[in-house]
Amino acid sequence: xxxxxxxxxxxxxxxxxxxxxxxxxxxxxxxxxxxxxxxxxxxxxxxxxxxxxxxxxxxxxxxxxxxxxxxxxxxxxxxxxxxxxxxxxxxxxxxxxxxxxxxxxxxxxxxxxxxxxxxxxxxxxxxxxxxxxxxxxxxxxxxxxxxxxxxxxxxxxxxxxxxxxxxxxxxxxxxxxxxxxxxxxxxxxxxxxxxxxxxxxxxxxxxxxxxxxxxxxxxxxxxxxxxxxxxxxxxxxxxxxxxxxxxxxxxxxxxxxxxxxxxxxxxxxxxxxxxx
Length: 276
Hints:
The structure is a single chain. By secondary structure, this protein is an alpha/beta fold. The chain has helices spanning 8-15, 61-69, 81-86, 112-124, 127-154, 170-181, 186-194, 196-199, 204-212, 215-218, 221-228, 232-246, 248-256, 261-271, and strands at residues 30-31, 43-45, 50-53, 72-77, 98-101, 159-163, 272-274. The chain has one domain: Protein-Tyrosine Phosphatase, Chain A. The strands form 2 sheets. Strands 1-3-6-4-5 form a 5-stranded mixed beta sheet. Strands 2-7 form a two-stranded antiparallel sheet. Strand 4 (72-77), helix 3 (81-86) and strand 5 (98-101) form a beta-alpha-beta unit. Helix 5 packs across helix 12, helix 5 packs across helix 14 (261-271) and helix 12 packs across helix 13 (248-256).
């Protein structure tokens, strides 16, 4: 099985530029700061407050020092026990950094039947299939997302990282909710989502090895490619879904994350800073 490679020169150049952040041993790390708000003129999302990434299981000692240098005090792990065991990707110990488990899905959501259905949706590559998958994340992830947003509310001067396995879907949905709450334009949210295709290129071999363990992907390169890619139009469709089926980001956070209107306003304030 082989997935189309991105040009290495382009990848290296892009990874050296914002919003990407280099943390040795961790891929697909991005700072959600620096995006202009459309609802608060002259404001942008704060840098070094909220970071998104892939799993931290292989973070190096240098990478741990980098986390502290960035001001990160808390890491939120969206993965399930099943994923951690399946991929043999343990939770690291990082001195001075609290690592909290906030799984989106429960163990029973990883039954063979559920996983077969989920893999089939990914394999199709169709926008409507991803919307079904992303609805599942919204339906199951509210309390996990709420825990992370409460950190932003209660500890606005302490950076945090949130991640799933690849930093694409659960992580991408939460990043979209945060940026949408801050008033970032849909096109920029979609661009952030699509950057995962670049961000996890250094982990290509690991991703391919994991996909090869699933018969559906091992025997179907097109299905694997659909799993690997992150199209901006998929995020645009998701943001429309969020509005149409969940009545927008604020209503979603009230109902599913159990945040009050006052909580939401404070989180938004903490996410923003003046443009320099």
